[in-house]
Amino acid sequence: MNENLPNEEMRARLDAFREDFERLRSEVGKVIVGHLEILDDTLIALIAGGHVLLEGVPGLGKTLTVRTLADALHLKFQRIQFTPDLMPADLIGTNIVLETEAGRKQFEFQPGPIFGNILLADEINRATPKTQSALLEAMQEHSVTVAGKTHKLTEPFFVMATQNPLEMEGTYPLPEAQLDRFFCKLLVKYPLISELETILDRTTEAASPKAQPVLSGERILEMSQLARLIPVAAEIRRYGLTLVLATHPDNELAAPITRQYVRYGASPRAAQAMILGAKIRAILDHRYHVAKEDLRAMAPAVLRHRLILNFEGQAEGVSSDTVINEILQSVVQPKMVA
């Protein structure tokens, strides 16, 4: 595909991509009030094949967002309420003993609720690390292994997890390896008074709006493959890599605030997520190539959960978003090496 002048077939496919994205966003918007940025980033992660972590205090519509997204898609929806006594087998399933017609006993795998297309992991940080880690293989490999046998999950497979702020009681911080599996982490903020009024209108009337299915799983996979065809210039890719390396305190490209407050920086998965998300943003902005602005728009969502602050950063109450904003302001793209 020519970077500046895509052929007519590609133009038509990209136009259909934008139309389908807008249809899905509009359908979810019939139920969800506000949170437009969160909704866009969630849909971008879904199309990119990633998973989303939503963080916010109870009652802000995190669970409703996932349910509404499932309603707007022709996909199988599963919900798991994470609690301290939830076991890995309750999540992925287990082998049970059945008796055959001949009177013999045999093991048969009983799939758990993880076998769906859209999985709502509600309050994921209320489960113990042992149960949280049961999601690792599923999120990365899209499969689970029980008693030495691997079971593939149905595509597309999208995990949307919600969690309360870590300082609240009865929560277990997600391990770093688990956090890194999430495409992005989105912070759900308290709605404005105008949005609260709309919420009350929609939830206290006789009839409540409900999203209708508008896209299939096959279409989501097609959109994912199409987004990967969007080209990225070498200098733009290098800029994205520079942003990621600037989060590592021991790297020569580290920003001053990184050296002061960060213990460990983002993994290569952050660069992958940033590039994929930027490609989708380029399509939505009627462009056929990725720009720096696309990478900068994706940076907070894909980096904030991948930074580990040092003791000084934690003691002074520095947030990951503060570090990321400073990086975006201070990073200068290195010159290309021939």
Mean of residue pLDDT values: 85
Distance between the termini: 25 Å
Instruction: Order the strands across the largest sheet as they lie in space.
Output: 3-6-9-1-10
Query: What is the total number of structural domains?
Result: 2
- The share of residues in helices is 40-55%
What structural class results from the helix and strand content? alpha/beta
Q: What would CATH call the homologous superfamily of the largest domain?
A: P-loop containing nucleotide triphosphate hydrolases
The helix/strand series, from N terminus to C terminus, equals: HHEHEEHEEEHHEEEHEHEHHHEHHEHH
CATH architecture term of the largest domain: 3-Layer(aba) Sandwich
Radius of gyration: 21 Å
Gross morphology: globular
Poorly predicted sequence stretches spanning 5 or more consecutive residues? none
Instruction: Count every beta strand, where a strand is a DSSP E run of 2 or more residues.
Output: 13
> Could you describe the largest sheet, including whether it forms a barrel?
5 strands, parallel
